Amino acid sequence: MKKYILIFTVSLFTLITSCGKENLDLNPFDSVGADVALNTPSDFESAVNGLYRQMIFGSYGASMMSFPDVLTDNLIFVVTGRQTQKTTFEWLYNANNTQQGFMSQSYTVIQQANFILENIDRIPDGAQKNNIIAQAKAARGLAHFMVNNVFAKIPTQSGDANGSLGIPIMTSSDIRQKPARNTVGEVYTAVINDLEDAKSLISASNGKERFNLNAINGLLSRVYLYNGQNQAAADAANAVTTTVSTFSNFAGVWTDANNDGVIFELKNFDTDTNVSVGVPYSQTLTGGIKSEYAVSFELYNLYQNTDIRKSTYVVTSSFEGNLYNHVAKYLSSSVNTGSGVVDIKVIRAAEVQLNKAEALANMPGNDVAALAALDLVRSQRYIAFTGGETGQALKDAIQLERRLELAFEGHRFFDLKRRGLAIDRTNNGDFADGTGTPPNFLVLPAGDTRFQLPIPKTEIDVNSNMVQNPGY
Question: Residue 53: pLDDT above 90?
Fold first, then answer.
């Protein structure tokens, strides 16, 4: 068996040599050959299920939920931990030590989606076919979006971003192609086209465990915001009907006791996927919680005592005689017994309202509507809060709420990056009271090339058209 180790293939896709002729077996879903794997509507439904599983195992279930916070000021490296992601935390990554797994797994999602789309005309036209197309396009669009934001610029990051090196746009499942990098502007156009196409085709009956109409509109509010299209972001957010989770239900969202306010989630079960989302943050041992990354002292102190997120997102406890502010968001599930095996919340109504608030605040004359969107979140997080902000104070309040609400969900790095801001850590240590060992690296200046992670060397080696990011 001959394997092509390209960015767009992993062991799920192999090139089989038989009778002197190479035939591509593109079946990532089971052991049946590609020529019979996707023939019936049931086959395609199974293939779509495979997309969701791949998203859990790869682009979300690996380190995607943690490394955008590890890179920033939300987390602090704990010296007694396993030392994982240390080069990420210290911004010392290079082409041999980067987010290669995230890139390859995300492109596997893209490749699987393309295979579905290439063969979709084997089944009759109709609502089921449209729904399959919509889910495949939504998965492909989201994966392209996520990979680009890690390895390339975000359109609002700088004036030259749209014309700069993006990531390759893949619309074919052929593993032998060697694509060049598209521009950031081209990537965002492709992402928006996929999501808009999906919006027009998606089934109204899809639940929260699948791409659904609210999810696609919610994701469009995120993409349009990142792309600087503020009115489009607000319009997409207005199309979402899911309401923000209530104060009383909020803690249960993170133990899978309920999914109030969740728009789209990846179901994660002990008996099926069994991916521990919490492991990159900590491990629960007989002696207590052993953190690899604790909540930074600065972030912890931003949570008011009347904020339900403080007790939901953080647990303060001792390990080996020292107190730490551990990330509690993924510690346990009411459904699963495995440590950290919880459902992955891809997008929630609270984010959509914050997307809307920011987009409106960016446009003159919309402070009242922006404040109303912000207060939809704040009213369900605090016992009481003082609002009424306008102008820059309102914009600052929105960004503070984004940081508090979306902590440890893979947002912080991109929120700083897309706004062209530096990463600025405090000199506090890893213990709960701010003492202990402080970070060795405190500031990543705005505009630094390290805001674009390096393309893995292995991918450059196998694709002569792939070029490295500047500065590496």
Answer: yes
